[in-house]
Amino acid sequence: MPPSATTGLRNAVRDLLPMGVRRWLRRARTATHEAQSRIEHQRLALRAARAAWLPLARPGEQPFRCNLCGAHGSAAPARLGDREAATCEVCGSSLRHRALIAALQLRLCGEVRPLRTLARDRRIVGLGMSDVHVYAQWLQRKFAYDNTFFHKAPRLDIQDPGREFLGRHDFVICSDVLEHVAPPVATAFRNLHGLLKPGGMLAFTVPYAREGETCEHFPELHAFRIEGEGPGRRLLNTTRDGRRQAFGDLRFHGGDGDTLEMRIFALPGLLRLLAAAGFRDLRVTPSQGTHFFQNLTSFNVGYFTVNPDLGEGFVDWDWLAAQPAVREAGCVRHLRFEGPLVVTMDGQRGEGVILKP
Ligand SMILES: [Zn+2]
Q: Is 313 helix (H, G, I), strand (E, B) or coil?
């Protein structure tokens, strides 16, 4: 029997039951689900605690420590640089998940450490928007954090959030959501700001182009529906002034419900939207594309990733800026020194240093 027929039959049987029995069944189902998720979480915590004592770096791979579960792991640089690859073998987190949570931790606790080891603080109020289980499960245990969804309860539509959500959060996480909300996207940015307490923090990701302008796929979207199946799906729109439009070549991203790509952001436009919505103190952490890492590793090039915000190294910019340049062109300053620079790198431990001449 196809799943829809099974569901239909189940719903029909359920409708025949008295209200009290239905309520009892619903409660029993929720309790079973919660117990299962608790057991699963304990199992994960155990595996993570074990892996935390077993630093492992396979040859040719780059070691890292997962700041969600605390496990040590390693992965080929190209895979580690892939924002979506599930590189933590214990909890399945990706670079995007870990970077997002690292930004949050730096703001909340001033350091990046496994979420597992954070002290529980229920005074910190957080909100997620379709956050994945891989980090939502830790946030739920550590903070007064609620995960919300567009398509199911607890519901939150960022284009029109209920008053009960406004002005009460220390942090809001919005990861790869705003490329899917209907235009005008500026409203969503303003509402994100509205969810926060004064001084609250937004941890935010979207795929974006570094240059150019944000490209809205359906700028006049008003009353619309999606028709058809598979690659032949079309979006039919009636604009505010009554014109009909049809769009093919729709791009859907993985996830619950309709995750239609509405736009491709570009960095300059994104920064303008964030600033216009009232956000200050912006920190942009670009995830290098996999091609960058593939090129570097295939040519056996050593490279440094310096990220002072994550406590990973520093660059003496003042000293560099004070050195005379041989040539300057746009974004490039070419320096030449009398003596050699000593560059030392330990690829196994992911550590290195460049000494001034
Ligand atoms: Zn992990």
A: coil
